[in-house]
Amino acid sequence: MSSLFPTYARWGIEPEQAKGSWLISTEGKQYLDFTSGIAVLNLGHGHEKVKSAVANQLEKYWHVSNMFKSSAQERTAKVLTDVTGLGRVFFSNSGAEANEGAIKLARKATGKSKVVTCLQSFHGRTFATMAATGQEKVRVGFGEMLSTFDYVPYNDCEALAKAVDNETAAVMLEVVQGEGGIHVVEQAFLDAIKEQCEKHGALLIIDEIQTGIGRTGKPFAFQHFDVKPDIITAAKGLGNGLPIGAVIGKEELAEYFGPGSHGSTFGGNPVCIAAAEAVVNEIFTLEFLQETNEKAHYLMSELTKRLQGSKQVVEVRGLGMLIGIELTHEAQSTLEALQQGGLLVLTAGPNVLRLLPALTVSKEEIDLAVEKIGKVLSV
Ligand SMILES: *Cc1c(COP(=O)(O)O)cnc(C)c1O
After folding, report:
1. For atom 11 of ligand 1, which residue has the closest CA?
2. What gap in Å lies between CA 122 and CA 300, rounded to an integer?
3. Of 241, 258, 283, which residue is a domain's last?
4. Which atom of ligand 1 is nearest to the CA of 179?
5. Nearest-angstrom CA–CA distance, 37 and 31
C-alpha cells in the first residue's frame, strides 16, 4: 500500500541515474528521455554549468529571505527583461504561482477582476489557476470555482470580442497550448486580442511556462509572432529542474507590486536562482538558439517523412522542440509501446503524443527517437 495520495498515474519506471538525454532505471534499462521532466530539463539532465552554479551556492549559503539584497536575482531579472523588452520580474517557486502573481498584478493594475482565458488551456492547479484553466477535467469535484474567469475557444476571434468587456482585467493565453494538445495560436487571434485589450483597457498575459526558455527556438514563444504582452509568466525550464518561476511585466506595472503587496518565502531562493542564472546565460545566446532551431527543424522534417502515410497518424505539429503527434486513437498504448522500446514521451490530451526533447539533444539521438517512433507508428 502506498503512503502517497494517488494524484499521479505513475509509470513503472524508477530512475537510478540520468545524464543529458538519457535515463537509466533502477532495473538497469536505458531510456532516451524525450519528456525532459515535462519541458523542464531544457539543458538535459545533469548539465555541468547548472550543477556547478548550484554547488557553488550550496557552499556559500542556501537560504536567507527576500529581506536581503540579491545580486543574482537582479542579474537574472535583467537578462529576462532585456530579452523580452519588459521591465520588472517577480520570482516565484512554480508555474501556477507565477500565474497567480500575474493575475493578481493585472487585477490590481486595472482595478478590474475578470480574466478571459481559452478552452483547452492549462494554467495550473491552485484555486485561481484551476479556474483559469479551460478544461473541465481539472476542475471536477472541487466545488464552486472563482467566478471571475470567462473562456473562449482558442483562435476564435468572434467569441473573444464577445467575452472581453470593460470589466476585463486581462486576457491570458498560451501561444502554443501544451497540455491541451499542442495547438499553435493564429496571428489573427493575437491581433483580435490586441484590439480588444486596447479597446477595453485590459492587459495581455502570455503563459510561457511550457513554451519559454528556448523551448520553441526563441527565448519565449510569443517572439515568433507580432504581439506585445504586458505580462509573461515562466517556470518549468527556468531552473532546469530547480523549482523557480517568474512573473515578467512591463515597467509601468512596478507601482502595483510595491512592498507588502505580494511575496513568497522561497521565491527566487539562492540555490534556485543560481540555477536560473546559469540557464538563461546558456540558452539566451544566438548560437544556442540557432542550434536549437536547426535541430527542431530536423526533428520535425524527419518525423514527418517517417510517419508519412501512417494510418495511425492524423498530423504532426508544433513549434520548435514542442511537438505533438495526433493519432487516430488514444495515445496511451503508443506511449507504453515506445517505453518498451526505450523511448520516453508524454501525451497531451487523449490522442496526442507529446515530444519534449532536451534542447541539447544530438542529431544521432533525434535519429534514434524517429526510428523508434517510426517502428511503432508506421504500421
Ligand atoms: C506546467 C504548466 C503550468 C503549471 O506549472 P506548475 O509549475 O506545475 O505549477 C501552467 N501553465 C502552463 C502552460 C504549464 O505548462
Report:
1. 123
2. 24
3. 283
4. 15
5. 13
Supply 293's cell numbers. Answer: 532551431
Q: Give the CATH number, domain containing residue 328.
A: 3.90.1150.10
Cα-to-centroid distance, 125 and ligand 1 (Å): 8
Identify the segments of the chain with pLDDT beneath 70.
none
- Could you say which of 243, 264, 283 is where a domain stops? 283
- Distance CA(237)–CA(375), nearest Å, equals 30
Distance 89 CA to ligand 1 centre (A): 18
> Is there a domain that residue 364 lies in?
yes
Count of domains for the chain: 2
Residues 298 and 258 in one domain: no
pLDDT digits (tens, 9 = 90+) for 136-192: 999 999 999 999 999 999 999 999 999 999 999 999 999 999 999 999 999 999 999
Same domain for 152 and 68? yes
Q: Is residue 6 part of a domain?
A: no
Ligand 1 atom with the smallest distance to the CA of 236 is 7
Distance in Å, CA 206 to ligand 1 centroid: 12
d(CA 78, CA 154): 32
If you take atom 5 of ligand 1, which residue's CA is the nearest one?
95
Distance 60 CA to ligand 1 centre (A): 31
Whether residues 253 and 115 fall in one domain: yes
Beta 30-33 vs 88-92: how paired, if at all? unpaired
Say whether 36 counts as a known binding-site residue: no
pLDDT, one tens digit per residue, over 24-44 is: 999 999 999 999 999 999 999
The angle subtended at Cα 332 by Cα 331 and Cα 338, nearest 5°, is 90
Q: Are residues 219 and 137 in the same domain?
A: yes
